[in-house]
Amino acid sequence: MTSDTYPSLASGRYRLVSVLGTGGMATVYRGYDTELDVYRAIKVLAPELAVHTKVRERFQREARTMAKMIHPNIVMVLDVGRDADRVYM
Prior knowledge:
The protein is α+β, with helices and mostly antiparallel strands. It is built from 2 helices and 6 strands; from the N terminus they run E-E-E-E-H-H-E-E. A hairpin with a 4-residue loop joins strand 3 (26-33) and strand 4.
C-alpha cells in the first residue's frame, strides 16, 4: 500500500505511511511528522472503540502515563489528540 492509502491526522501534520501492527484496540502506523520532519510510530484507536467516551478517556490516560515515563525500553509519547472520529498518540 502507498501512503496515499492512509489518512493524515491533525490537519495533515501526521501522514500515516504504513501499518506496523494491529491489536484488539488500536493500529500502530509508521507515520511522518511533517512539522518536525521525522518519522514516528502513531497509535490510532480503533474507530468502533473511539465512539465510546470511557474507552477514549482510557486511551488518553494511557498516553499521559506513558508521556511521564522516560526509559530506553518504553516508547516515548510526544503527542495525543483527536482528529474527527480518530483518537491517536
